[in-house]
Design goal:
single chain; about 160 residues; alpha/beta; 6 helices; 7 strands; about 45% helix
């Protein structure tokens, strides 16, 4: 019985996450990463008017070892190019932006969070790209479905986390 209720709650969360705009996914994503990493992170992805700032990464730790970028773009998991040589334009842009944020080797963990659901073949195609081969070991991509599951799990573990 409990599993059935859990699935219904996650489905409802997924529907809510799919409806988030750019500002909303940033706020939820930032809280999600902070709770997952068990530390307070800095959020500079929005200016004082809650508009995207664009000049810096969205979320980062004090030493920039953890960085997060968020997207509400509908085509986030769609590729251009061929199926043997796919290009994920927004993901490539976000990863390049994050790596350039910290000099040297870049951050240790890179979170890319989207309010969209990834396509069933996304992981295998993405893993074949050059950028995934270069930065894949430190990149954590969280689509809407995984975010919904994560929000549910965090809320169960810590009822205060349910507030966000």
């Amino acid at each position: 019985m409990f599993e059935h209720i859990k699935k219904r709650i996650i489905k409802g969360l997924l529907e809510e996450i799919n409806c988030l705009d750019a500002a909303g996914i940033e706020l939820v994503g930032h809280s999600y990463i902070s709770l997952r990493e068990n530390q307070t992170l800095i959020h500079h992805g929005q200016n004082k008017d809650y508009m995207p700032s664009g000049y810096t990464v969205d979320t980062f730790s004090d030493n920039s070892s953890i960085v997060g970028e968020y997207s509400a773009e509908k085509s986030y998991f769609e590729f251009s190019g061929t199926k043997d040589s796919p290009v994920y334009a927004k993901i490539d842009k976000d990863l390049s932006h994050v790596v350039n944020h910290k000099s040297g080797a870049g951050p240790d963990k890179i979170y890319l969070i989207s309010n969209q659901e990834e396509n069933p073949s996304f992981r295998s195609k993405f893993n074949s790209t050059k950028i995934a081969q270069k930065h894949g070991d430190r990149t954590i991509i969280i689509d809407a479905r995984e975010l919904a599951k994560g929000v549910y799990d965090q809320s169960i573990k810590n009822p205060a986390a349910a507030d966000f």
